[in-house]
Write a structure and sequence with these properties.
The complex is a heterodimer. By secondary structure, chain A is mainly α. Chain A is built from 6 helices and no strands. Chain B folds into 2 domains: 157 residues, Cytochrome c-like domain (Cytochrome Bc1 Complex, Chain D, domain 2), CATH 1.10.760.10; 82 residues, Cytochrome c-like domain (Cytochrome Bc1 Complex, Chain D, domain 2, Orthogonal Bundle), CATH 1.10.760.10. In chain B, a hairpin with a 4-residue loop joins strand 1 and strand 2.
Chain lengths: 122, 276
């Protein structure tokens, strides 16, 4: 597991370096999904199914289910709390409609980290 | 405000679970009152229109499509199946009172002899068996789906009228209700999460329909002529939450359909409608 994640990180790093050179751009493999990609993808986070993200380009949704994700830093001074909400929303609210992304392994720990980093910035 | 709302919804949902000792009629009334409170401007009869009640634009589109349904040939095919005699010369109509007019609203019912819930589609298969014909697969939209498309339309306008009498019937009803309120699948939703708690909300771009009225208008035709029976929709919704679906015609789904249909008692049936 640890090894795996290091490998993935390394691959990500190489990808990053390579994509900056013009050589790699021609032979570019599909890039590692970003936090935003993971949040938008309806097979991954699918956050837009339930959350508007006002101000985020391309965040197309008319949803009315969860609160809009804005000003996350102000709402979650403690980033760990934000991560905990994504990892298992039933903890804060047993009746929640939000899937327990970490607890039910809908997303990997790394994917959750990336998504949390992304929404922490919006 | 939001917290309050969530607390209120939570309490109502809890009622759904805790209220296991409520009678079916109390369950139905509680559901009705819940939606009356949630949507004071929506009339009882309108609930048969599902998610369209929340979107005048989509409802206008529905009405124009219903004038010339793109699935007309499927309906004609269903009529032909219904009217074509079995090898012994008898027809489906011979198996039902009044040629099967105004009966679908009595299904599902609890069949004492069988000791189980029996659906309308099971009655169609029982008719075939009685007349020496092989049974049709409940999941086969080309045969059972097409047949029930016409057979159910003979009950258009009849009001849903499901009865739960006796301890065994009540147990089946409770089992169906439990399926409806039980969280399942990797995504951890119950049917009620979407069709009670979030009914009227938009999930990404789709309005979620309320449980009330959901069982009254089957089969539906989605996006043109894609025929979907009620239990096929159960499979679809189970898959949405990444749960393993049950077999169509299974006791699990039949009990779910029993509960689900009872909640729509008093609402008129209308087979073969367009859905997105």
């Amino acid at each position: 597991m640890r090894k795996n994640s290091r490998l993935m990180l390394a691959a990500g790093f190489i990808g990053l370096v390579l994509t900056t050179s013009s050589f790699a751009q021609e032979n570019a493999k599909p890039a590692e999904p970003s936090g935003k990609d993971l949040a938008f993808n309806n097979k991954k986070g699918n956050c837009l199914a339930c959350h508007l993200m006002p101000g985020v380009p391309g965040a197309i949704s008319n949803t009315t289910i969860g609160p809009p994700l804005v000003g996350m830093k102000a709402r979650f001074p403690d980033k760990a709390k934000l991560r905990a909400q994504v990892w298992d929303a039933t903890k804060a609210n047993p009746q929640t409609s939000m899937p327990p992304f970490g607890k039910h392994q809908i997303l990997t720990e790394q994917e959750i980290d990336k998504i949390v980093d992304f929404i922490y910035g919006i | 405000m939001r917290k309050l709302l969530t607390a209120f919804l939570g309490a109502t949902l809890l009622f759904g679970v805790v209220g296991a000792k409520a009678t079916p009629e109390q369950d139905r009334k509680a559901t009705l009152e819940y939606f009356q409170k949630k949507f004071p401007n929506i009339k009882f009869e309108d609930y048969v229109n599902g998610a369209f009640i929340f979107s005048p634009d989509a409802f206008a589109q529905y009405n124009s499509i219903m004038e010339f349904p793109p699935y007309q040939t499927v309906l004609e095919h269903g009529k032909k199946m219904w009217e074509t005699p079995f090898k012994n010369g008898k027809t489906y109509a011979s198996c039902f009172p009044n040629g099967a007019k105004d009966i679908a609203g009595h299904y599902p019912y609890f069949d004492e002899a069988l000791g189980k819930v029996a659906t309308f589609e099971m009655a169609l298969n029982a008719c075939r068996k009685l007349n020496g014909e092989p049974e049709l697969a409940y999941s086969d939209m080309k045969t059972m789906g097409v047949l029930t498309t016409y057979a159910r339309s003979l009950s258009d306008g009849m009001k849903m009228n499901i009865k739960v009498e006796g301890a065994k019937a009540l147990a089946a009803f409770e089992h169906g209700k439990q399926h409806f309120y039980q969280r399942r699948g990797q995504l951890n939703f119950s049917c009620a999460t979407c069709h009670v708690q979030n009914a009227g909300n938009i999930i990404r771009t789709e309005y979620l329909s309320p449980i009330l009225g959901q069982a009254t208008h089957w089969p539906v035709f989605r996006a043109g002529d894609n025929l979907v029976t009620l239990q096929t929709r159960y499979v679809g919704c189970n898959k949405l939450v990444r749960a393993v679906p049950y077999a169509q015609g299974s006791e699990e789904y039949n009990d779910l359909e029993y509960y689900h249909s009872y909640i729509s008692n008093g609402l008129p049936l209308h087979a073969d409608v367009f859905r997105k």
